[in-house]
Design brief:
- This protein has 3 domains: about 10-125, Acyl-CoA dehydrogenase/oxidase, N-terminal domain (Butyryl-Coa Dehydrogenase, subunit A, domain 1, Orthogonal Bundle), CATH 1.10.540; about 130-235, Butyryl-CoA Dehydrogenase, subunit A, domain 2 (Beta Barrel), CATH 2.40.110; about 235-385, Butyryl-CoA Dehydrogenase, subunit A, domain 3.
- It is globular and about 80 Å long.
- It has a 4-stranded mixed β-sheet. The chain has a 4-stranded antiparallel β-sheet with strand order 2-3-7-6, covered by helices on one side.
- Helix 8 (about 320-340) crosses helix 10 (about 370-385).
- It contains 10 helices and 8 strands.
- About 50% of the residues lie in helices and about 15% in strands.
- The chain binds flavin-adenine dinucleotide (FAD).
């Protein structure tokens, strides 16, 4: 498989340190040599390539921007570049790593007790345990504050009742971070696989994110030990804090999908000919599409880099992340559509990654806050008026 040449129109790499470039080189090699060759079949057969888990763990991909417990302690530029390369392979692969790190390890790291951290984080980092994050419910997606899942304290146990759906990695997870309503407010819990009253069913028939497992979690008088509540995971704000971590990764990740589409189309039109001797790339309408894509990818890279610097400085807030996620997903989706067009009929074939990226990006537009919801977050920031209701 040929090595990905990278997309760097404006000396973006000159803004990166040697360590940051090294992380990207490592991730790029893993994607080109090991992951990329598996993703087409994984997508077609609707399976996640679990055989990649040990190598991703040994390369430090899980919880990569966390400190301690065996985590790589990457800065947020390194972490972002990692997400970019993984999503260049497939959004499902990046989702797996995002969920494990940002939605499972992060809440345990940020909100867990010393015992919970010591028990779970080394295993999750090593890929010996897999996690999932249960916030969405059948009736509550964009508005998780309406959740119906309940947890009540009875003696030494919390009793959970309710349902979570659209949960990435649900059926392969050893541990679920579950958000439920208690008399004191929303609270995050650790629910272990095999707990009586906890059952999981996979969702089938997805035409997007096929190389990713998506499940529903059911809780029927599911009793978990009192000590499985995450002590600091109190209120919806705690759950949204995890989503901010994941959305930041998405803002970088989708650039990888956009780059793969752009580079596939650029290479295709430089050799494909119609009407005359010159390649398609010699026509103005074709160049206009390439010019749009490279400009938007370059702007997206700079936005992501600035966001990472702000994050490292502790200055990145949720409304900043909304702009990053919303913008970069939108331009990635448009890059996929334009690239598909430039390949003509070939663009719909799975010989090329474009259609797979396009289908995946429809999910990425929706999960972790829809395009509309991030628009409203930005609108609220600039007007002071919340327009969600
Ligand atoms: C493949 C996949 C994996 C997922 N993984 C997870 C996971 O691991 N854990 C988890 O908890 N969830 C997960 N989700 C769920 C995801 O976060 C939700 O789908 C998302 O929050 C949107 O919720 P919804 O699908 O119920 O859409 P809805 O909230 O019903 O929205 C439908 C439409 O209405 C619009 N809308 C809603 N409210 C407003 C408003 N106030 N103003 C304007 N427009 C509005 C939306 O923007 C959207 O266009 C996943 C979803 C998918 C598809």
């Amino acid at each position: 498989m040929p090595r990905f040449p990278g997309v760097d129109y404006m000396h973006f790499d000159s803004l990166l340190t040697e360590e940051e470039l090294l992380v990207r080189t490592t991730a790029r090699r893993f994607v080109d040599e090991t992951a990329q060759p598996l993703m087409r079949d994984a997508f077609n057969h609707a399976t996640f390539p679990t055989q990649l888990i040990p190598e991703m763990a040994s390369l430090g991909f899980f919880g990569a921007n966390l400190e301690g417990y065996g985590c790589a302690g990457m800065n947020n530029i390194e972490y972002g570049l990692l997400m970019q390369e993984l999503e260049r392979a497939d959004s499902g692969l990046r989702s797996f790593v995002s969920v494990q790190g940002a939605l499972v390890m992060f809440p345990i790291h940020a909100y867990g007790s010393p015992e919970q951290k010591q028990h779970w984080l080394p295993k999750l980092q090593a890929g010996q345990a897999i996690g999932c994050f249960g916030l969405t419910e059948p009736g509550f997606g964009s508005n998780p504050s309406g959740m119906l899942t309940k947890a009540e304290l009875h003696g030494d146990c919390w009793i959970l009742n309710g349902e979570k759906t659209w949960i990435t990695n649900g059926s392969i997870a050893d541990i679920a971070i579950v958000w439920a309503r208690t008399p004191q407010g929303i609270q995050g819990f650790l629910v272990e696989k095999g707990t009586p009253g906890y059952s999981v069913a996979d969702l089938h028939g997805k035409l997007s994110m096929r190389a990713s497992i998506t499940s529903s979690l059911h809780f029927a008088n599911c009793a978990i030990p009192k000590c499985n509540a995450l002590p600091q995971a109190k209120g919806l704000k705690a759950a949204l804090g995890c989503l901010s971590q994941a959305r930041f990764g998405i803002g970088w990740g989708v650039l990888g999908a956009a780059m793969d589409c752009y580079e596939t189309a650029r290479a295709y039109v430089t050799t494909r000919r119609q009407f005359d001797d010159k390649p398609l790339a010699g026509h103005q309408l074709v160049q206009e599409k390439l010019a749009w894509m490279i400009t938007e990818i370059t702007k997206g890279q700079l936005l992501a880099l600035h966001a990472a610097k702000l994050k490292d400085a502790g200055k990145l807030d949720a409304a900043h992340i909304s702009m990053l996620k919303r913008n970069n997903v939108a331009i990635a989706l448009e890059c996929a559509r334009l690239s598909r067009d430039l390949l003509g009929a070939n663009g719909i074939m799975d010989d090329y990654p474009i259609m797979r990226h396009m289908c995946n990006l429809e999910t990425v537009k929706t999960y972790e806050g829809t395009d509309h919801i991030h628009t409203l977050v930005i609108g609220e920031r600039v007007t002071g008026i919340a327009a969600y209701r």
